[in-house]
Specification:
The structure holds two protein chains of two kinds. Chain A is globular, with a radius of gyration of 20 Å. A ten-stranded mixed sheet of chain A has the order 5-4-6-8-1-9-15-14-10-11, with helices on both faces. Chain A has a three-stranded mixed sheet with strand order 2-3-7, covered by helices on one side. In chain A, helix 7 crosses helix 13 and helix 10 crosses helix 11. By secondary structure, chain A is an alpha/beta fold. Helices cover about 35% and strands about 20% of the residues of chain A. By secondary structure, chain B is mostly helical. Chain B contains four helices and no strands. Chain B has a single domain, classed as ACP-like (Non-ribosomal Peptide Synthetase Peptidyl Carrier Protein, Chain A). Chain B is about 55% helix and about 0% strand. In chain B, helix 1 packs across helix 3 and helix 1 crosses helix 4. The chains are: A alpha/beta, B mainly alpha. Chains A and B meet through helix 2 of A and helix 3 of B.
């Protein structure tokens, strides 16, 4: 494999409910610090959610904030932070050769709900419906806002892939670099979902919305008493480059994407299918030319729904075997489900393990579900390990979309 | 509402719609869009605010009459005299 066909991560920008950059995020993961709290939402009152506290005015004018969307703000913040982290000078690169590929679970619900809420005051007279509704709700909007803000003229679009979208944004970026369509990809995912009541209401009525007297304890994957999802916002954008370009400019390399896969359950609207999850993990391993014993960490997708966690555990057991030494953790226990951002955010939170050789834990496991037992499930305390060479990241979504990414510690 | 009140109301709308702009030197007889970064969507926000706050509907054919501050005041004065 030559360096033109090896794709590496050279910059990371993120906002999570417990951190606004990788260093802060990682510190809070290792410290077991949750970012979940409570917010007010239309019609439902107080709900448990993960909300980010980055300063949107760091990179946007007030007018941009008023015109755009929350997802756009998150994307703009993450894109700037990623470029700064990559040490690229945006003014000295060809902006027509930068592609923006952002995974989203959904987009437009927030604006649509807000408009309906607002016109209620005017007896549903649509003369009062905002002319901003369409540009705010077109599906490419979060990525498009980045182009407007940063003057990037290469391709931009979002990838709607439910909760597998964060991984899929990165996969799309990788593929476009391999195809030679762009020279730099800003790839990842974003979510503004806590600002739409409908997602909370639907999860609640489906019996899949987390509840707990202490919001920080609400997201509890693998715990016997888990009772559903904590809806969260967040964003994570990675700068992806061909290894040849990264080496030429002496970039810091976080890791190399060596394997990926996307497949479909063709099974159910909401229920997971471990059989297809198995196939997806195996496909990614095959693409990477790795065996299960090469994987050191699995960042699980587990969202803390009773059935979903069991299904993923079953799939991991099927692929890795009952006696596998692989370390397994989960990020949603700290930040809830950041939806379109989840795949990317959860992956990057684990990348520092290549250097510090620590596997961050899964918090909130008070009583481990017997169906989620693994030899090296890392719960409640971080684990110092000998080495970390490969991280496998699961991200699955509704309508049965599965995605797996494998990132390797960089070696020339 | 008198002319000066209408003027300050419009300026208040503009400052809410374009919070980054300095309006202190806005010339009343020059097109607003030539002086500050205001695009058609921002202009429609002014139209929407008039509709929401005062129930005033400005037909599209009359938009040009609101292109300057003086023009907007003159256009709105008869419509807002009883507000």
């Amino acid at each position: 494999m030559n360096n033109e066909t090896r794709i590496v991560i050279t910059g990371i920008g993120l906002t999570a409910p417990n951190g606004n950059n990788l260093e802060e995020f990682r510190q809070n993961l290792l410290a077991g610090k949750s970012g979940v709290g409570k917010i007010e939402t239309h019609y439902m009152g107080e709900v448990i959610a993960g909300v980010c506290d980055f300063d949107p005015l760091k990179y946007q004018k007030k007018k941009e904030l008023r015109r755009g969307t929350r997802a756009g703000s998150i994307a703009i913040y993450c894109a700037h932070e990623a470029i700064i982290d990559s040490k690229l000078d945006l003014d000295s690169v060809d902006k027509s050769r930068i592609g923006i590929y952002l995974g989203i679970t959904e987009h437009g619900n927030v604006e649509t709900e807000n408009e309906i809420y607002n016109i209620k005051e005017y007896n549903y007279n649509v003369d009062f419906w905002s002319h901003h509704h369409n540009p705010r709700t077109v599906a490419n909007s979060p990525a498009g806002e980045v182009t407007l803000n940063m003057g990037i003229t290469g391709p931009h679009y979002t990838l709607g892939a439910a909760c597998a979208a964060g991984n899929i944004g990165i996969i799309q970026g990788l593929q476009m670099l391999l195809l030679g369509e762009v020279d730099l990809a800003l790839a990842g995912g974003v979510s503004e979902t806590p600002h739409t009541f409908g997602v909370f209401a639907a999860f609640k009525n489906e019996g899949a919305l987390a509840s707990h007297p202490d919001p920080k304890k609400a997201s509890r994957p693998f715990d016997r008493d888990r009772n559903g999802i904590v809806v969260s916002e967040g964003g994570c954008i990675c700068v992806l480059e061909r290894l040849s370009d990264a080496l030429e400019r002496g970039a810091k390399i976080y890791g190399e994407i060596v394997g990926y896969a996307i497949n479909s359950d063709a099974f159910d609207f909401i229920l997971p299918n471990p059989e297809r999850q198995v196939e997806c993990m195996n496909l990614a391993l095959k693409k990477a030319g790795l065996s299960v014993s090469d994987i050191d960490i699995i960042n699980s997708h587990a969202t803390a729904t009773p059935e979903g966690d069991k299904a993923e555990c079953k799939a991991i057991r099927e692929v890795f075997g009952n006696d596998s030494n692989v370390y397994i953790n989960n990020t949603k226990s700290y930040i809830g489900h950041t939806m379109g951002a989840a795949g990317a955010l959860e992956l990057v939170g684990n990348l520092p393990s290549f250097e510090d050789h620590i596997v961050h834990q899964t918090i909130n496991v008070d009583n481990l579900d017997p169906e989620c037992v693994f030899k090296n499930l890392v719960i409640n305390e971080p684990r110092k390990v000998g080495k970390v060479d490969h991280i496998l990241n699961n991200s699955f979504g509704m309508l049965g979309i599965n995605s797996v990414l494998i990132v390797k510690r960089f070696e020339e | 509402m008198k002319a000066e009140e209408i003027r300050s109301t419009i300026l208040e709308f503009i400052s809410e719609i374009l919070p980054d702009e300095d309006l202190s030197d806005l010339k009343p007889d020059v097109r607003i869009r030539d002086q500050i970064e205001m695009d058609s969507m921002d202009f429609l926000d002014i139209i929407m605010e008039l509709r929401k706050r005062y129930g005033i509907t400005v037909p599209e054919d009359d938009y040009m009459q609101l292109s300057t501050l003086d023009g907007a005041v003159a256009y709105l004065e008869p419509l807002m005299k009883d507000i």
